[in-house]
Amino acid sequence: MAEQFPALIIVVPLIAAFFIPVIGWWKKQLCYPWVVAVLVVTFISSLGIINTIMTTGKFSYRLGGWAPPWGIEYALDYLNAFVLVIVSFISLMVAVYSKKSVEDELPEKTAPFYTLFLLLVAGLLGIVVTGDVFNLFVFLEISSLSCYALIAIGEEGAPIASFNYVIMGTIGACFYLLGVGYLYIATGSLNMADLAVILPNMYHSKIILVAFAFFTVGVMVKGAVFPLHIWMPDAYSTAPSAVSALIAPLMTKVAAYVMIRIMFTIFQPRFSVETVPVMTVLGWLSFIAIFAGGIKALAQTDLKKMLVYILVAEVGYIVMGVSVANKIGLTGAILHILNDAFMMACLFLVVGAISYRIGTRDIHKLHNLNKIMPFTMGAFTITALSMAGIPPACGFFSKWYLILGTIEAGQWAFAAALLCSSLINAVLFFRVIECAYFKPMEPAYANDGGETHMVQRDEAPLTMLVPIVIMAAGIILLGIFSGNIISSIIQFAVPASF
Amino acid sequence: MLDYVIGKYNFWIYAVLMMIGLYAMMGKKNLVKKLIGMNIFQSAIILFYISTGVKTGGATVPILMGHAQEHGHQAIDVAGYLNPLPHVLMLTAIVVSIATTGVALAIIILIYRRYNTLEENEILKIRKDTGV
């Protein structure tokens, strides 16, 4: 059983997705338990994979029994097993959460929504698990296509945002495909491990340089790395709240994983760092991204828009950790993939719950929210502290490693940017917290004909609250156990050539 | 120079088509034109892949005639056979391209129903006027 997990983790959600229209046609209420059950299976599979890797080391799965490099290989090591657990856990939590918000926002479209939801998760898991560059392209498109459709069913303005995403996303995917083509011309192979063996003899070749450029730009578009993030703010902020909570933490993180995979597994670090100055460029781009994202976020009054711009800065952190290209920086980047997935998921879940209950996402209209939704706001506060980098919340630890990495690389400007962005985050979140906790209700609302208006407690429904509380608890626990996570998983996930 | 261009003309066409597609996606204001640009862009990549599989000089599809298993010692002449893999990859890419076009067209219908126009600047103006 255990050796079949890499196949099961893709096949189960993929096949289950096609049963949903039938189930939805028969009984609409059954879609939700079906999706949750399927995602529990994928989560167990991902735990099985990481357990196997931690006990017996990395292994590979041959689809159809064809030996690599001819057949498609699913190569599992510490890095992608780690990302698999993140993807499957967050998607499970969002699926649990989605019940009420889908009933509220998309009452007529339950079955199509869940079909696309599972396809998106299958695509993301496939990107992570595969060891074949072309197979990765196919999964990239599965996840992107379902993502376009999921965004398009959102609120006012969503279709146009989604169309822009289609255009940009296709350019990104096509550039990736061209990169695959150029590598194939030069090497005749599509298998990542095989490419890593063949390529070092050809690093002087111009074809390889072009392929590397195409890969970098393609993945930058997909991962919304500054300045190719322009499609993202509109697309992610107009999507239905369950969808933003799924794609905002996961799409960008999976793209960051692909970036690490390409730069340090397919190509060796010495090529990515020395032959082309791509790391310097990426480092300075992420430097700008951190400030631009933070400043744009300050200008927003819509809570979800603010989070999306913060996400631009957060992607900047990860890329910065990759770009300094040393062991500590990369440890920070991989740890931040985990931490930021949790923080972003928690924040978007909270925003979804707020707009479900209060009906607004305007920061200035959140008066007395701590009394109306105490647990939700508690979770929001924990995440805000984590984003500002206050221990023991997990955001502190990944930022600590990122800063150590930039200092080791001698990039003091980057270290300063990371510290500044903690301050920007503090301002951003305390602005919201101030409004929700401390601002008295405006007189017009408070004095309803001379009577003192009592604030009714109106917490989010249980299916929403449980994932939020689990994510918030996870943020604290990940912070406390981050030493264990690094020593047992991440230190092996960093490519050995460092 | 001319020989250099003519000798690899399919790759030149691929580059030109790709730039036309890229320009249409970035520069055109009409959403359907953008979509057509996207299709040109994807077709250019298909042309590129197919071109990489070309072998001149009488090469044919890789169907081994006779009993290759029995004559295991007889080496297969690689120059006589085409590499089918780029073509097979493109079958997948065509499927992806059609699916993308389908999704994009569906989104365009959604946009047209909402704004009654497909010109990007007019849609932006409508959205600005309604204050969304």
List the helices and strands and how they pair.
The complex is a heterodimer of chains A (498) and B (132).
Chain A: H1 5-26, H2 31-56, E1 59-62, E2 73-76, H3 78-105, H4 110-129, H5 133-152, H6 158-187, H7 192-198, H8 206-222, H9 232-238, H10 241-266, H11 269-275, H12 278-298, H13 303-323, H14 327-357, H15 369-372, H16 374-388, H17 394-408, H18 412-438, H19 443-446, E3 447-448, E4 451-452, H20 462-480, H21 482-493
Chain B: H1 2-7, H2 9-27, H3 31-52, H4 85-115, H5 120-130
Helix pairs in contact in B: 2-3, 3-4
CATH architecture of chain B, by name, is Orthogonal Bundle
Overall, the morphology of chain A is globular
How many E strands of chain B?
0
List how many beta strands of chain A DSSP finds: 4
CATH topology-level fold name of chain B: Helix Hairpins
Radius of gyration of chain B: 23 Å
Radius of gyration of chain A: 22 Å
Query: Strands of the largest sheet of chain A, in order across it?
Result: 1-2
The averaged pLDDT of chain B comes out at 84
Instruction: Please give the alpha-carbon distance between the first and last residues of chain A.
Output: 35 Å
Helical content of chain A stands at over 70%
Question: Any low-confidence stretches of chain B, pLDDT <50, length ≥5?
Answer: none
> Helix and strand succession of chain A?
HHEEHHHHHHHHHHHHHHHHHEEHH
Classify the beta-strand content of chain B into a percent band: under 5%
